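Limitations
The structure tokens in this dataset are predictions for the assembled complex, not deposited experimental models. Users should treat interface geometry with appropriate caution, especially where small molecules or nucleic acid strands are included. An illustrative entry is reproduced here so readers can see what is and is not provided.
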Amino acid sequence: MHQLLAALSYGDAISNEALAIQAHLRRAGYASDIFAEGVHPRMAHLARPLWEYPDVSSPDTVCLFHFSIGSAAGRLIHHAPDRLVAIYHNITPAHFFMGFHPHLAGLCYHGRRELEAFAPRTELALGDSEFNRRELEEAGFARTAVLPIVLDLDAYRGPVSPVVQRLYADGRRNIVFVGRVIPNKRIDDLIRSFALYQRHAEPHSRLLLVGDYRGHERYFDRLRELVASLGVQEVVFTGHVDHDELLACYSVADLFLCLSEHEGFCVPLLEAMVFGVPVIAYDAGAVRETLRGGGLLIQDKRPDVVAELVDDVLTRPDLRDRVLESQRRALAELRAIDFGVLLAQRLAPVLGSPAAPEARA
Amino acid sequence: MSKDVSADGVDVEAVMAQVRERIAEKKRRGLLTDEEVREIAERPLHPVLDAHEFRSRLLAELMADRQRWGFAFGPEHVYGSSRGGAGRLLERVRRLLNPIQKLFWNPNPMISALSRQSDLNQSYVHLIHNLAEELTRVNLDVQDLRNRVLQLQGRLELHARREKALEALLTEAQAGAKGERGRA
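Predicted assembly:
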């Protein structure tokens, strides 16, 4: 049982999931390698190049393909004779990128058509949330299930960057969001809410936006214009950060605010919980599922309402404690999941039966 | 009013009700106005046009109204008339009188000049179109480069702050080491 990915990156949730799946499969006695188009230099020893996949490809091989739009891995596996299990991490709807990244908007639009093309070819499709599973169903996949991303909590026990910690632990209230600077994350809404919070509640505050903006410079430029036009101070775009810097950002966070309008899972919500940071999140996509009843899930994200709620959580210790308690319960629920057992259960329909003739290439 | 939900143990409905009550109170006291909230909430995030995506419609517009500039000019236009049958008679008379008229002034250089002007107009239309397109592309490129400079400036400021934090950490570490040596 092998896995195919577009890219095996360092510290990325999908890559970590692929490694976790590999570890469990190997423990269960399967030969299991990861094949990727692009591999981060630090992960080079953990993956094989994509062009080696034909060496293991056969009608008896089960391939776990992490679906990604327009990838060579997708084209390869679509025409390979292997039994196919698709793992779907979602495709952002194209309309979010219109006006900011027309090329990506096109890729996302065609990506959904590409996903539909995989439906008749796939024996089992796994979404990492119920939200994603429903999308798979709508795309025509016959057999679907949920395989949630389970965090490797040990990865968050590493050393934090002392420089970043020093930089932002300066007495200011740090409101943090972690995620790529892309339109569906609605970073502009974060800035609007923060503008009101800083003006009317806590001038000595900072909005720390932790995430890569490379490839989305146009959206990033518009955001910086918005920051300047609103006269907001201390809105920090960190750009891409290393793992120890990410940990430092969580360690100085007073609150995690997410106003994203489309999330297939949203790992940073769980990461914030791991660091004991109260979470306020807008109820969109898979956010509700990921929070598992933890944090504050809101359906009204007008900037005045969000700003007031942020102030409420940061100034009322009783409310903060209750939010943190709810998050601890959610994390405990997450910790109770045995990923190995869950993976075995999810893959049982494929492993327990020979290849379904209609699902073969 | 939207319904807000959340964790067990946190009555978000109640929390949100309190939040809305406090916002209303702030508005009553004039600390916050609907205009300010609207102004922030509705400030647009303008989409961006890439220089390579820009297509000028100037040429299409000019081509659509070709009569304004794309005229032809020849001798028939000097003698011609638009008055139907009477016009044709008039044209014949004018041509007959042409040798006499030439005793007073010669229209041929004027006809030739206007004909060349007609050709030049076509070239100008294409030139103006290309210039407008190129100028717009250059403007967009300049805007893009300005944004990149601002991005780099932002990164530079961030690195300067990191550098200061690093220096402060180093100073503290050195002071700590000296203190330990002193105690030893």
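Some entries come with short summary sentences. For this one: Confidence is low (pLDDT under 50) at residues 355-361 of chain A.
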